[in-house]
Specification:
This protein is of the alpha+beta class. The chain has seven helices and ten strands. The protein folds into two domains: about 130 residues, Methyltransferase, Cobalt-precorrin-4 Transmethylase, Domain 2 (2-Layer Sandwich), CATH 3.30.950; about 80 residues, Winged helix-like DNA-binding domain superfamily/Winged helix DNA-binding domain (Arc Repressor Mutant, subunit A, Orthogonal Bundle). Helix content is about 40%, strand content about 25%. β9 and β10 form a beta hairpin. α2 packs across α3, α4 crosses α7 and α6 crosses α7. The longest helix has 14 residues.
């Protein structure tokens, strides 16, 4: 067994996660497009095709599977998701690895179950629809918009103090304690993320905002 194959087996034993997804086979190019876009929009990652969810090796026909991946990346991802690939022979079976780098052309979108194109992010071993605040940050950065001005008022102070005291805050909680509308909350959260004061924290059940690691909040 080659060192490369040993590395793949070690990764398989570690299980699926933010950078790794197993696919027994590919039967739905739109579904696989969601995985490609999620990897590209997050930290990059690999699809191991020919591996069951439990980590056992099923093997695949690499030419057919590669064609379906190419179709997903070209036709069902907007913009196209770039990828490279490797073929691994493990226990006499072929496993196709699709390697997706983190993209700088965010956001990449793919069709949901109803055919509506949405941006996805990778959260642990799931593909989650990206919050609209994060999508707007991506779009503004793509246009070169990074410097913004905000008025430091009671609303901003309320937000920062709440995060300082509790570690993070949801948009709905922010709206309640600040007494503002959803659109106003979105605008402020987006601007603070662009200023790298806040960063977004996404789980399968919640979206919260916390201080960027490089930001130090000083209590007045």
């Amino acid at each position: 067994m080659t060192d490369l194959n040993k590395d793949v087996l070690t990764r398989i034993k570690s299980g699926e996660g933010i950078n790794l997804d197993f696919k027994h086979s590919i039967s739905d190019t739109k579904k696989i497009a969601r995985s490609l876009s999620a990897f590209a929009n997050t930290k990059g990652g690999s699809l191991l095709i020919g591996v069951r969810d439990n980590g056992s090796i099923a093997g695949i026909n690499s030419e057919e599977e590669y064609y379906m991946i190419e179709t997903a990346a070209l036709l069902h991802c907007r913009p196209e998701v770039k990828f490279s690939f490797k073929n691994h022979i493990i226990n006499g079976k072929n496993v196709l690895e699709i390697i997706v780098p983190k993209s700088f052309e965010l956001p990449h979108t793919a069709p949901d179950h109803d055919g509506i194109f949405k941006a996805y992010v990778r959260v642990n071993d799931e593909n989650i629809v990206a919050p609209k605040t994060l999508i707007e940050v991506w779009r503004r950065k793509k246009k070169g918009i990074s410097g913004v001005k905000i008025k430091f008022n009671d609303v901003v102070e309320t937000l920062l103090k709440e995060i300082y005291e509790n570690g993070s805050i949801s948009k709905s909680h922010f709206i309640r304690i600040a007494g503002i509308r959803s659109a106003e909350a979105d605008k402020l959260l987006i601007n603070l993320m662009l200023m790298e004061i806040l960063e977004i924290e996404i789980t399968s059940t919640s979206v919260k905002y916390k201080f960027n690691d490089n930001f130090e909040y000083k209590v007045l």
